[in-house]
Amino acid sequence: MILMSGPCVIESYENLSKVASLLEPIAKNPKIDFYFKSSFDKANRTSLDSYRGPGIEEGLELLSTIKKEFGYKIITDIHESHQAPLIAKVADVIQIPAFLCRQTDLIVAVAQTDKIINIKKGQFMNPLDMQYSVLKAIKTRGGQEATYEESKRLGVWLTERGSTFGYGNLVVDMRSLEIMRRFAPVVFDATHSVQMPGGGGGKSSGDRSFVPLLSRAAAAVGVDGFFMETHFDPSIALSDGPNMIPTQELNPLIEKLLLIDSISH
């Protein structure tokens, strides 16, 4: 089971290392294909005054240090096409943010590297239409069809993170997991799916209490993995604190998901 986990944004090396250390028991589980996640820049924050991160040069240096110290594979976001070669020097998975999931130049730039590309489904997207984003990457890598097998072979993943529902809320349609799995491996983003965009008065809010419920449902439907942001103390996190799972609570949830996953298969 794929698991991508770590703090939403790089706050400091001390905080990054503390979360990485707490994740070691999960990362060493032989049933899990683990990727450490954190962003060097959150370019789509609600407010101009919100913390964005240390930037690409310092951020990649810190992620590289974590990679060497803990032996973790790394996933991080890309925001502009020219960043792809630099990010590819450190990351094992390069993630296309949900708001940018249709950006052709960005998808092509990542697909031209030899890294796995993880495309997050836009909150505004019909899940069936995500096949065209997948196909952009597939064709760039020499393939012709957007099928599960071809996407897996060429390293193209999709991530579900909920759909816009009314004002300041998201809803997860579990049918989208099955629909998108027709043309790519699918990861369920449990923490962004409980986000309330802009619900915090100039910043996003959320309700992490629903993360276990939605995760168990996704595992029962059948997915290839999970994306869960985590922090040792979400109350002081500089981004997405209300959505993130306290790192100390992550392991029991993962054990339940592994059990459900084994039954569903």
From TrEMBL:
<keyword id="KW-0963">Cytoplasm</keyword>
<keyword id="KW-0448">Lipopolysaccharide biosynthesis</keyword>
<dbReference type="Pfam" id="PF00793">
    <property type="entry name" value="DAHP_synth_1"/>
</dbReference>
<comment type="pathway">
    <text>Carbohydrate biosynthesis; 3-deoxy-D-manno-octulosonate biosynthesis; 3-deoxy-D-manno-octulosonate from D-ribulose 5-phosphate: step 2/3.</text>
</comment>
<dbReference type="GO" id="GO:0005737">
    <property type="term" value="C:cytoplasm"/>
</dbReference>
<feature type="domain" description="DAHP synthetase I/KDSA">
    <location>
        <begin position="1"/>
        <end position="251"/>
    </location>
</feature>
<comment type="pathway">
    <text>Bacterial outer membrane biogenesis; lipopolysaccharide biosynthesis.</text>
</comment>
<dbReference type="InterPro" id="IPR006218">
    <property type="entry name" value="DAHP1/KDSA"/>
</dbReference>
<dbReference type="GO" id="GO:0008676">
    <property type="term" value="F:3-deoxy-8-phosphooctulonate synthase activity"/>
</dbReference>
<dbReference type="InterPro" id="IPR006269">
    <property type="entry name" value="KDO8P_synthase"/>
</dbReference>
<dbReference type="GO" id="GO:0019294">
    <property type="term" value="P:keto-3-deoxy-D-manno-octulosonic acid biosynthetic process"/>
</dbReference>
<comment type="similarity">
    <text>Belongs to the KdsA family.</text>
</comment>
<dbReference type="InterPro" id="IPR013785">
    <property type="entry name" value="Aldolase_TIM"/>
</dbReference>
<protein>
    <recommendedName>
        <fullName>2-dehydro-3-deoxyphosphooctonate aldolase</fullName>
        <ecNumber>2.5.1.55</ecNumber>
    </recommendedName>
</protein>
<keyword id="KW-0808">Transferase</keyword>
